[in-house]
Each structure stands twice: as structure tokens, then as C-alpha cells.
Design a protein that fits this description.
Length: 195
């Protein structure tokens, strides 16, 4: 990415801090390496549901994964699925354009307003408050969250659009990885943009 991201403390916002004292954001869920010491970059992913629009959001799952495991997982997908995922993150959500827009009004010597990144679905524009299912994804390095094209929020329609373009083989691999390596609830796919 050509745009220089801003780095802010990862624990500045509740949206990116683990749900309890288990310190589950200390290591990559898949390989167990320390994300704070051993891996240069990692992804925080959390998914939430609501019983109805405006109701309190409940955490469905959360995990951290290192960039190496994420790259390995991406590479295991079928070529057409890899192309679909890459196109989704370059065309449907243009992360570079998004970074330019979000960083345009932010100077590096102030703590930016994270709400600009996460208040709406990056694909549909739907307010997160109205979404009954939404996923938050962020890149981080050590104790720092990187603000550029990410963090990003996707609500249900956007997630279905991303997942609908996957081959059956890829869906099976993504589902197996999610349950076996990440211990997520059944029928989840981990389709996070590789760094
Ligand atoms: Zn890992």
C-alpha cells in the first residue's frame, strides 16, 4: 500500500480489545506465536450480532491471526477464489481509495476519530447500529493499530457477497480452517485480505 498508515494504540477503542481477561490477543490463534513479539503484522477480527437493529451488539467470535498464517490460508484457496477475493478488496472495497479519503482530514499528531472507519459498512454504507450481523477487521503491529484502508466493517449483505464468489473447495477449506485452527463457531469463513 502506497499510503502511509497512522498508528494508534490498539487498546484505544473497545472495538479492538479482547472481550475478557484471557489475553486472547496475545498470540496468533492458528500457530500460537506471540503477535506482540514474533510476528511483524497481524489481523484482529471480531464479529457481532444483534437481535434487532439498535439492540446491543453481542460478540459472536473474535481472534487474532498473524500475517504468515493468513497468507498461507489465502494461498490454499482455489485460483478463481483467490482472484475473487483480490478483486473484492480492490474493486468492491477499494482499500487504497478508502485510505486516501479517511486519512485526508487527519493529521498524524492527533488521535483520529476511529468512528469514521467503523460506523458504516464499507460496501453497502449501512449503519453498524442497524446491522444484525457485522464483522470488524483491523491490521495491527505490536501494540499499534494501523489506520489506512483498514479497519473495515462489513455487514451481512457484504459478507454474503464476498462469500458467494468462493468455489466449493475454497468454502470447505475456509470452513475447516475456521473450526479446526481458529476454533470458531460452525459455518464461518475466514476471508480476510492478505497484507
Ligand atoms: Zn500464525
Amino acid at each position: 500500500m502506497s499510503i502511509e498508515p497512522l498508528a494508534v494504540p490498539v487498546d484505544t477503542w473497545d472495538l479492538f480489545t479482547p472481550s475478557d481477561e484471557n489475553d486472547r490477543f496475545e498470540s496468533c490463534r492458528a500457530c500460537g506465536r506471540s503477535i506482540k513479539k514474533d510476528t511483524p503484522q497481524y489481523v484482529i477480527e471480531r464479529e457481532f450480532t444483534r437481535t434487532e437493529p439498535g439492540a446491543p451488539a453481542e460478540l459472536a467470535y473474535e481472534f487474532t491471526i498473524c500475517e504468515s498464517c493468513l497468507a498461507d490460508q489465502d494461498a490454499s484457496y482455489s485460483p478463481d477464489s483467490q482472484e475473487h477475493i483480490a478483486q473484492f478488496y480492490s474493486d468492491v472495497i477499494d482499500l487504497n481509495v478508502r485510505a486516501e479519503q479517511l486519512l485526508a482530514d487527519t493529521s498524524s499528531d492527533e488521535i483520529p476519530n476511529i468512528d469514521a472507519w467503523v460506523e458504516r459498512c464499507a460496501v453497502t454504507g449501512m449503519s453498524v447500529e442497524d446491522a444484525t450481523r457485522f464483522r470488524v477487521m483491523a491490521y495491527a503491529v505490536g501494540e499499534w493499530l494501523l489506520l489506512a484502508g483498514m479497519p473495515v466493517v462489513m455487514t451481512e449483505t457484504a459478507l454474503e457477497r464476498l462469500e458467494s464468489g468462493l468455489s466449493d473447495t475454497t468454502k470447505e477449506r475456509a470452513r475447516t480452517f475456521a473450526t479446526d485452527a481458529l476454533h470458531l463457531p460452525p459455518d464461518q469463513y475466514v476471508i480476510t485480505p492478505a497484507v
